Amino acid sequence: MSLPDLSRGQHRSARQDGAASSTPIDLPLLGPDGAMLLPSHAAQGAPAQASPPARGAASRPLAGAPPRRPSGRWRDHSLGLIGIAGFLLSWELLPRTGVVSQAYLSPPSDVAQAIIDLGGQGELLKHVLASLQRSLWGLLLAIALGVSLGLLMGRFARFERVIDPILQLFRQTSALALFPVFVLFLGIGELSKVAIIFWASFWPVLLNTIGGVKQVDPLLVNAARSMGASSAFVFRKVVLPAASPSIFTGVRLAGTYCITALVAAEMIGAHSGLGFLTLNSQEVFQIPSMYAGILLLALLGLALNYVLALVERGCTRWRRGLASDG
């Protein structure tokens, strides 16, 4: 027997001894393209493919799993409703139980009845429309002039240095302190009341617009100019969108100051409006109607703030897109 034959015989016997003494090891089978084969596909040489999950399997909760908790937003709304209900209940019980005299604090049920009575007499709509008209005129004028002047002052430093000392002097003057001046020039009619609302609402819009323009990133402006953009294009497409969050902050603050100034304006020399209704009801000791006027003023302020928030959300939709991309 030759040496190669002897060597092959020794190797064959060694493999047989190893197969008898060791446990078989299942090695993965590979197909022609290198894909792993399952045992059921080994004979056919087909690559293994995972079966797709059943439709709706991911959405069905597992058996015995705890029920889903309500979302955080719904939970927050529920807590807010509980707080409002607790406040109204306390307000109702304090005068009803005699803890506070009803001569000073009317229960909310009486206030609601007073609102219904005013609505039935046609007085409620008249007062609400008068207050709404005055507040909107003053606020719109403040937004138009405040944003325009703020953009100019924030964009052109020399113009700001010229006009800023005068504006700082006027800014410290209260709208109520200027009411005699407004009456002297504009009379006791609607113009003087709109002027007070305008004066109170103008300053937050102006200051926030100036701050927003100054906080625009210079890299954005320089990048637009390096690509050949004109000054008008840079102002319209870069500066104004970047300053819009600060501008809308000032507008919403102006909405709050607008209602405050409205009350003061209607309490002096007015014959209609929610401020007039509140003061006149207190003078004739109609306490439920007085609280009705206060409540309606608060609701008017909430409605105005909600509308301004919707406008801000629509005009700054691009910010939410950037936040979601980030």
From TrEMBL:
Gene3D superfamilies listed in its UniProt record: MetI-like (1.10.3720.10)
UniProt-annotated location(s): Cell membrane
Superkingdom of source: Bacteria
Regions that span the bilayer: 78-94, 135-154, 175-199, 290-311
Single GO cellular component term: plasma membrane
Membrane topology, record value: Multi-pass membrane protein
Major place of residence: membrane
Record-linked InterPro entries: MetI-like (IPR000515), MetI-like_sf (IPR035906)
Region (Disordered): 1-72
Residue ranges, compositional bias (Low complexity): 39-66
Boundaries of every ABC transmembrane type-1 domain copy: 128-308
Biological process, per Gene Ontology: alkanesulfonate transmembrane transport
Alphabetically ordered keywords of this record: Cell membrane, Membrane, Transmembrane, Transmembrane helix, Transport
Protein family membership: Belongs to the binding-protein-dependent transport system permease family.
UniProt-recorded name of the protein: ABC transporter permease
Organism: Bordetella ansorpii
Lineage, top ranks: Bacteria, Pseudomonadati, Pseudomonadota, Betaproteobacteria, Burkholderiales
